What we know:
InterPro entries: Kinase-like_dom_sf, Prot_kinase_dom
Strand content: 5-15%
Number of helices: 17
Order of helices and strands: HHHHHHHEEEHHEEEHHEEEEHHEEHHHH
Distance between the termini: 36 Å
Number of strands: 12
Oligomer: single chain
Protein name: Protein kinase domain-containing protein
GO molecular function: ATP binding; protein kinase activity
Domain Protein kinase: 182-518
Helix content: 40-55%
Amino acid sequence: MEPVSLAFAACSMVDLCIKCGKVLYSRCQAYREAEREVANAIIYIEGYWLKIEDQVTTLREIWHGLDERLQVHQNYVLQTLQEILESAVHTLDNLFWEPDSTSKIENLVAKQGQIKRLKYVARGKRSLERVIEQLGRWNRQFDPSWILLSRISLPVIQEQLAKKEQSGVKSITPIRELREAHEKSKIPSHDSSTSIFLDENYTITDIEEIPLTTASTGLAPNGMVVIIDKHTIRENAEFKAIKKDIRDLATILSKADPAFSSLLPCQGVIVAKDQAYFRIIFSIPEELTFDRPCSLRSLLVTTEAYSLNERLHIGTSLARSVVFLHASRIVHKSISPENIIILPSAAGALETPLLVGFERFRFNEQRTNMAGDNLWEKNLYRHPARQGLHPEEIYDMRHDIYSTGVCLLELGLGSSFVNYSDDQKIPSARLPIADMLAAKNKRKAAVEIKSVLINLAKSYLPQQMGRIYTDTVIACLTCLDPSSPLFKDESEFEDEDGILVGVRYIEKILFELEKIRV
């Protein structure tokens, strides 16, 4: 389809979704008083549509400023929305007939009695709950590409987004806050009127290490539990430059929403008195109830088996965090089970995983540090070209995707690749790489270890996690290969705003994970 035709067709799809949504909303208004047993479900449906309407209407206003590839992506997502909305209207009409007619349920009671009524209401509630689930799933699917709009630098889009927010569209707020954080990062530290750095009298008490991670917990002055992420300043590093980077990182992370990004909001930063390190303080929102925080590594090394649902939830949440980081122009560089914190519920269920460990991060616009290390347990999560004391490649989003793939592989297998024995870290029996670690040619060994990981995925994941999960893990592990179906066109990395890379990742990794049903 020609670009002009595509843009017209997609805009028509936006209008069609808005039209269907308004019909759904009018049905909800008409039916919400019909039966109190299903009234709450109808109110939920109304609420979802009002949020979606704001987002889709905004999308229509900025459509012609979007890259063609993003238009194609949004058109696909909108087609799904249209189908859900039409199905929802059909569901409501089947339950209640037309809004101005006698209640279907009243006729049912008159003819067949109260027992039939109760069965009908129960069936109706289940039908409406399916509609709520579908709308919620679509909203989660749309959110990643929505947050990517914060990366688009075109003035026309900035103007339209500003107008929408001024008119009261709350869904614009996360995009606006990320944009503001990006703008603050361009301001020299001494020119900034606000500071993310906490007062020197701000004291964290009861600090306790979280096992098998560098993060800790502690009590803030207000008595709330916080997560502490320590950032040690490397030898010969320029303190002022590092401080500005930490300021910019903390400012962006202060806008994080755990429900979407699997990142905790940053409360502030404490500078060590000897200027040897920073402590990034993350607050835990009150709605997140939890027992004792633990690392993903500590869960993987235990013999306890966690459900497929829980492992999928952790993997999908981790994949979503990479989208937020990319939208925020951040390359994490250290994604591994040691840097993923889990907040188990009091009942023992595994809740949303949270990414920490920003010690080696950088922003996309900055030149990457080409220094490395020879720690095998860290190299395992790095692409072969980023291993060793002198890595070959500059870090970009694909390297974080590779690291995510290794974590997804471990989650799928349900066991740790790294075993802790006293002060030593040794490969698990599941990971036959001892000879490769002892080899003199480290570069060749790194490539061989990558092949071992891919073979593990091909051999064991299909029966444990299914074909979709397996293909997604392999796509992550091969994302830097010349033959990779994920990023085969190098021109995508010439996109100044990084939109194309983000869209491809959302479609080929995140959407595939979210497609899996247990």
